[in-house]
Amino acid sequence: MALPAYAAKCTVESFGQPYTLNHRIYFKDEAGKYISPFHDLPAFATEDHKVVNMVCEVPRWTNAKMEISKDLPLNPIIQDSKKGKPRFVHNCFPHHGYIWNYGAIPQTWEDPTHTDPATSCKGDNDPIDICDISERVCTIGEVKQVKVLGIMAMIDEGETDWKVIGIDVLDPNAAKINDVDDIDKVMPGQLAATNEWFRIYKIPAGKPENTFAFNGEAKNRDFAIKTIEETMEAWKKMVTGDGFDKVSTMSTTFEGRELVKAEAAAEVVSKEPPLVEAAPLDPLVHKWHYVKL
Known about the structure:
By secondary structure, the protein is an alpha+beta fold. It is 16% helix and 26% strand. The strands form 6 sheets. Strands 4-10-13-15-14 form a 5-stranded mixed β-barrel. Strands 1-2-3 form a 3-stranded antiparallel beta sheet. Strand 5 and strand 6 form a beta hairpin. It is globular. It starts with 10 loop residues before the first strand and ends with a strand.
């Protein structure tokens, strides 16, 4: 299958030490210019908006909580932290790490100043999240084209945290799954497992169970596309206007409020330490946690 017309293509460069807080993964376009995965890659890969570009942050079955940094210039992927230490999600039996490839859709933003009428909560100040349910495990920083299937509205500590559900256009099952109702026909239990994972994954860390709008129902493809479009408009308003708080809007391709030349971007990356061997993982990362609701 040919890739969609607006499929984003790029490479990544890693710096620092994996599994520590100085690990950085920067993005380059096809010409070798450093870009922002938040601002310089298009959200949609097709004109009908049924396929998005997904920036893979966390490969399936892994635990390191990797994410696009909103605050650092050029928005590299970094490991999230908690109390000054790298963050790993717990294994809530029977789930090991993330149960899908997990990432973000570029050029989207959940506005923390806007109350979403669908959830009655404000946005979480992040690009919109996406779960890729395809069979191939992704790599960190990979940009893939994902067919939009549906969306769940998670409420995380009082903030709207949309979770788009999609499948890689190259997946063997992609032709069989075109909307949210098709998912359980081909992948029985996928939606229930996704709902459970998001509800319980923070409980071992002492957090309350997450809740969902719509009684946990996954809304259909058209609803999902409309939500992505709304977050894209919020992003565009922010990145071409006054920005927001500490969010870095530096870009090298998109003509926003902080467009810089390739040389300035290269200067940012030049300050990073070289890539070294990953730090050893604490054995507790692999511990099972049994959660009773």
